[in-house]
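Our preliminary data section would be incomplete without showing what the modeling component actually yields. Below, a chain of 170 amino acids is followed by its predicted structure, encoded as tokens that our downstream tools consume directly.
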Amino acid sequence: MNYRISERFFVAIFSLPAVLLIVGCATNEKDDYEPMLSRFYVESNPRGGYSEALTLPLSQASVPVDPKPVFSELDIVAVDMVQVDLGLCLRFTLTPAAGRDLYRLSVNNLGRRLVLTINNAPLGVRVLDNPLSYGDILIFLEVSDDELERLTRNLQSTTEDVQEAIQKSS
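Predicted structure:
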């Protein structure tokens, strides 16, 4: 009888490090991302006073914007890459309240541009050529397709974490 107890004891003792090693080496894909904060700025009114010019990396297009973002990472619930007629772009889906704000913003600023910054680097511009009524912003970025995939993964993971934190705090 003592033999069986000691055998179980040794099996348990020697299997514990193996289990700990497996659990310790397991990686969670969600933790394997670079947090990226996305913010949208609207082109400023030339008569409105102070504005800061944001310059895109490839086209060197310079857009004077209001210093305060109109949408931030707190307003975004999903980010995904979509294929449209002109190529790959990002779709930012906003919260219902931010979607209503987007509609009002797009109506009041027809013809102006919406600039996307990711970690404070301007990477995309969208002309507000019609009212955006669905709470989605489609925007082309000045990056390669491979970089766009990486950005999409990082932005979506960041968005999930931010929305989870908002849910916990409310």
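The helical segments are 2-25, 96-108, 145-169. The longest helix spans residues 145-169. Preliminary results of this kind motivate Aim 1 of the renewal.
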